[in-house]
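Sample intake sheet
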Amino acid sequence: MTEAAVNANGDASHVTTRLDAVVIGAGVAGLYQLYRLREQGLSVRAIDAASGVGGTWYWNRYPGARFDSEAYIYQYLFSEKLYKGWSWSEKFPAQPEIERWLNYVADRLDLRKDIQFGTTVKRAQFNEATQRWLVTTDKGELIDTQFLVTCCGMLSAPHVSFPGQDTFEGELFHTARWPKQPVSFAGKRVGIIGNGATGIQVIQTVAGEAGHLKVFVRTPQYVIPMKNPKYGADDAEAYKSKFQHLTERLPHTFTGFEYDFEHAWADLSPERRRQVIEECWEDGSLKLWISSFAELFFDEAVNAEISEFVRGKMRERLKDPKLCDLLIPADYGFGTHRVPLEQNFLEAFLRPNVEIVSVKTNPIERVTPKGIQMADGTVHEFDMIILATGFDAGTGALTRIDIRGRGGRSLKEDWSRDIRTTMGLQVHGYPNLFTTAVPLAPSAALCNMTTCLQQQVEWIDDCIKYMRSKDLKVIEPTRETEDDWVAHHDETANATLIAKTNSWYLGSNIAGKPRRVLSYCGGVGAYRQKCDEVAASGYRGFAMH
């Protein structure tokens, strides 16, 4: 429908569509949010810049992209029929299979009719006169909506920061914007910048294909070898039989995985501790990180012992002292960064066609037409450059949209001074704006994403349902409520070793970004309980009218 409206600046605007809710994003959170809000009878549209569903798993189609959560837990648990209607081919499937699964979900739930693809939300402004949002797209549409729900993803705003990239005469790709058409590495001189979780997946995949591969490394990573068994019909049946168990367990563990911390360091003998660590390591999963000993996040002595265990495992594989110096961390502890799983990543550096370049003391200065120039003037020439340079995590996806709250306040400007949210679900000053996968909630990093995103989607859906039952039009956290949550978040985070380690977990990879641990460190189960308590209290601390 079309009608005249007045925006927050008082200018006459032409509204093209009027809705109850707009969902930004059609990934894991966006698909479920669309489904839930539509089920309660709202007129909803999801908007996504991609040409298809999947979010992270649409964009991240780089070589080697795959889960490092077990496939059978990285799933929606609200429908047993939906869960059991899909069978995975292996424990940690690759991106093409994950994208197919999300298409299966969209088809089974008949979601496509309410998704607008190939469209970018440029601006969203809260209209104080109507108490509704005006959403502007790059197609020139102006959508008037009561609720705005962002499902933009935690790691969806690529971080690219090298001058001269546009001058490069070869092929240049960011891993998060990888082309759909096949890319050939055969016989080419390939440079990869970055060796985080994404860079590791690319390096181990491309090493055997490239003519020559140079990897630019600044911060070495602790890695765990992935064990990725194939799944046959019996395996699929076995994990599907656990559906009820998973629905009861996953929402209440520390990180939303099936496994959880079971041992206290002080209760075990040194021999038994070592046995637990070895057993977790042998699982070939993230188990050592998130279900060996919780003390590794708080106690420097415990962390040091587990860190040295992992270093020893890495030394056994690398052998070469120079490679050990460049690829094994020495100045931070295991688990205080994101811990990647890998498949023969370290062995890639033993290949004659693979070379490592440390940028710690000689950083990259710029990209030139022929390659990469270092601070000391050295130029490395390439046919292809791959940027595995990460993301403006947590905040970047929203600060790239011009979001304006009460009084025209800008979310980008607010977050450039101080990154604040209320439980990662709303932001003071932005009424009727709901958020998923943003800072100050576990979904900002420290969780199995589907566990956390489902919980946030359901909380938002229940909150809107409550408002409608009471004929309430607007909700916003009070300043005091937000202050209290930020203080609780910081107290919890600052008790961990994560807060003492530079990484994207603190936004340290983005120049000028306010320093704060992005992810809530109190645990998925504890966070859920706090969210449930707020809902049970009639949303105490949230101003509603």
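Comment: Residues 449-469 form the longest helix (21 residues). DSSP finds 17 helices and 22 strands in the chain.
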